[in-house]
Amino acid sequence: MTDIKSICRKAKTASSEIAKCSSAKKEEAIDRIARKLLEEKEYILENNKIDLQNARQQNKPAAFIDRLVLDDKRIESMCSGLKMVAQLPDPIGKVDGMIKRPNGLYIGKKRIPLGVIGIIYESRPNVTIDASSLCFKAGNAVVLRGGSEAINSNKALVKIFRDGLQETGISPEVIQLVENTSRAVVLEMMKERDFIDVLIPRGGKSLISAVVNNSLIPVIETGEGNCHIFIDKDADKKMAEEIVVNAKTTRPAVCNAAESLLVSADIAPKILVRIIKKLQDHNVEIRGCEKVKKYYPNCRLATEDDWYTEYLDYIIAVKVVQDIDEAIKHINKYSTHHSEVIVTNNYQNAQKFLEEIDSAAVFVNASSRFTDGAEFGMGAEIGISTQKLHARGPMGVNELTTYKYIIYGNGQIR
Amino acid sequence: MTDIKSICRKAKTASSEIAKCSSAKKEEAIDRIARKLLEEKEYILENNKIDLQNARQQNKPAAFIDRLVLDDKRIESMCSGLKMVAQLPDPIGKVDGMIKRPNGLYIGKKRIPLGVIGIIYESRPNVTIDASSLCFKAGNAVVLRGGSEAINSNKALVKIFRDGLQETGISPEVIQLVENTSRAVVLEMMKERDFIDVLIPRGGKSLISAVVNNSLIPVIETGEGNCHIFIDKDADKKMAEEIVVNAKTTRPAVCNAAESLLVSADIAPKILVRIIKKLQDHNVEIRGCEKVKKYYPNCRLATEDDWYTEYLDYIIAVKVVQDIDEAIKHINKYSTHHSEVIVTNNYQNAQKFLEEIDSAAVFVNASSRFTDGAEFGMGAEIGISTQKLHARGPMGVNELTTYKYIIYGNGQIR
User: Fold this and answer.
1) What ipTM describes this predicted complex?
2) Residue A404 near residue B359, CB atoms below 8 Å
C-alpha cells in the first residue's frame, strides 16, 4: 500500500538535510550516479524491457513506444546530462543586495532551495534522472510521479539514484518515487500543500491542465508553445525564409517549434509563394487565411481553431496581416506566451515588437528554436515556463530556488 | 447585472496600454489622485457613512466598524501613501544581465508588469487605494473585489481613482471594481485564468484559504504570521526582554507580532520570571508548557493548538526548549514561515539559526515587527508573502513585476 502522505512527509524531512549539503558533496553524488547508470546498464535495460513488453501487449502506437525506449545511447545521454549538471555553479547560499538601514539593521536576500518539488510526468523515463538531478543540484527534495507505462524503468532509475546518494553519505529519502500510479493517488498528491512546495507537470496539454485544475499546491506550467514568426515589411527575404524553415521543420514536435506564420501584406507578394514552396519541400501542410489563397489557391483554409493550435507536427497556419500592429494583436491573442519572432531590418518595428509582445521569449531575427536552457547559457533546464509568476521561459537550476531575508541586528526594536 | 468576464476582459485590454505608460505619466496620475482624494473628501465620507449605517443596523462589532471607518486622518494617510508610491523608482523596462552567446545572440531579461492583478479583500476601504496604486505604479491593471460591507466607500474611492487616471489621459479601465459582492461572483472571478495573471487575497485566514482552495489563477498568499522569538542560552537578558515586549505588545493584531516565545533551558531560570512579569504588565496572557509552570505555577497550560495559533491578541504561548536544535525544529514545524527571531550573543548559534530556519524573514537580535515593506526599504508593500514561489516576505513594487527574455539576433538558426 502506497501512503502518499508518508512519502511526501519523508521528502519534506529530507529536504532540510539536503538544503544544508555542501556543493562539493552534491557534485560528488551526481558524478557517482552518472557512473552507476553505466555500471547498472543491464539492470536498467531489463526493467525497461518489461515496460516495453507491456506497451506492446496493449498495442500502444510506435511513437508512444519510442518515447519509452531506453538504449545505450539514451543511457549515455542521461550520463552526460548528469555530468553537466554536476558542473553547474551551485546557486544556494548567495546573499544578494545586503543593505544597512538607518537604524543599523543589515538586511540581505539569501538564495535557498524551494524545498520539495513534485514532478508529474508522462512516458519518457529520462525525465526521472534529468529532473531529479537538476532539483537536487539546487538543494531540493523531489517527489516523482511518472506514468504507469514507465513504472519499471522509473523504479530502476530511482533505485540507482538513491543508491548513489547513499554511497555519498546523503539520505536517499531526498528522492521519492510514487509507485502507485493510480489517478486517485495523483489527486491526493496534488493536495499535499504541507509537504510539497511546488508542482511541475511535464507532459502534454491535458496533463498540464489536469494539474492546474486539481492542484492546491502552487504549479509552474511548462511547455505549451504556440510560437509565431512574423515577417515584417522590411525583412531580409533570405533570412526570413531560413528562419521560418528552421523554426518549423528541424524538430516540429518540440515546444519551441513555430506553429503560425504571419506575413506583412507589403512583403507577401515578394516572399509568400517561395516560402510556401520551401515548406512544402519539407512536407509541411499549409493552412492559410483567405489572403494566402491568392498565392496558393489549393491551400486549406485555416479556421479559428488553427490560430490557437500547437500542432507539434508538419503543419503551419499562415496569415497575411496588414502591418505590425495587426501582427502584435494577433500574437497576444492566440499565443501561449512561449516564444515569438519578428524578422525585420526596421529598427522601430524591432523595438516595438520586443516592447509589446507578451511572451516569455521575444526574438528579433533569430529562430524560436533557441528558447532552450542550454542555448540561453543555463546548462540544463527543467522546462520552459509559460506563466508569469516566479519564472518565465527556460527554467534552470537558479529558477529552482527561492530566497529568505536574513537580518543582523543589535537589539533594534520598533 | 455584473458580468465578471467582461470586467476582467476590460482589465486585460487596458493592461497592455498601461504596460507601455511612461514613468512620468504614472507619477503624474498618482499625484493627481492624491489631490482629488482631499478635494472629494465630503463625497467619500458621505458614501462611507452609508456603509457605517448598514454595519450598525446589522449590529456588527465595534472592531469591525472601526476597520470600516474613513475620517480626515485616514484619508490623509491614503494621500501620503499615494505620494510615497508616486516617488518610488519605476521598476519597469530595466534589462538585467544581457549576455552575448557564442553564436552572437544577445539575450537579456527585461522587467515587465505582471499584467492583471486581482485583489480580494475584506472590510478596510483604504486597501482600495493602497493596493491599486502600488499595482498601477508597476504597470499593472487591477480587478478589485472588496467586501460587501465597504461597497459604497469602495465605489467612491474607485470613482476618484478612475477620474484621476482619465484626467491624466490614461484609460480608467486600468482599475476595475467588482460591484457585485456575491459569493458566486468571486468564485467565477477565481476561474478567469485568461484575464487575471495573479490573485492576491488580503484578509484573514479563512479568506486566504478560500482563495487557495478555489482559485485556478496563481495565488500569492500573504499575511499569516505565527512568529517566534527564541531566547538562546547566551542572550543579552535586557535585549531579550525588550525584543519580546516590543514584538508582542506594540501592535498585537498585525502579522509581524510575536505569537510564541521559546526559551533555552539554560537561561530560563535567569530570565523567565522577569519576562512573564513584564508581559503581564502589558496585559498579556501567558500559555505555557509544563516547564513554564515551574516559574509561573498559575499559568494556563498550552495545548498543541496553541503552538499553531496566530492569536493576533494579547496572548503568548511560551515553551522552555532544551537547546537551539529543539527551537529550530519547533519553529520549522509550527510556524507559518513569516518571521522568526533569535536573541543571542553566540556567533555559532546566530549563524545556525539564519541557516536552518525556513521562514521569509529570519532575525538575529531584532524585533520581528521590522518585517514590513517600509522598514525593509521598499517604500510601500502590498502584503507579506508566506509562500515560496515568486516572492517571499514584504512585497513591494518590484515584486509586482515579472520579466521576459528579449533576444537580438542577426539571422541565427539552430
Assistant:
1) 0.94
2) yes
